[in-house]
Specification:
Non-ribosomal Peptide Synthetase Peptidyl Carrier Protein, Chain A; mainly alpha; about 80 residues; single chain
Length: about 80
């Protein structure tokens, strides 16, 4: 079993994906950034699909609704990778 990505690496990839998808500077995206504040529901759905592709995981709609901040997404992805 391979070692999961460190959380810091996941965070960097998540922030980069958000910045690319939303057309904002990476410096404007923090762990504490709330998805509702930085994007609409369509953008959030597209981000979840991007995270699924990027990390080769599945994020259920139910799980996605619980992901309120960038930190929530990073922790969810880290946990999912660790348990796969």
């Amino acid at each position: 079993m391979s070692e999961p990505l460190p959380e810091s690496e996941i965070e960097a990839k998540v922030i980069e994906a958000i910045a690319d998808q939303l057309g904002v500077a990476k410096a404007d995206v923090a762990r504490t950034s709330e998805f509702d504040a930085i994007c609409d529901s369509l953008d959030k759905a597209e981000l979840m699909m991007e995270f699924e592709d990027l990390f080769e995981i599945s994020i259920t709609d139910e799980a996605a609704t619980r992901l309120k901040t960038v930190a929530d997404a990073v922790e969810y992805i880290h946990r999912t990778l660790k348990n796969s």
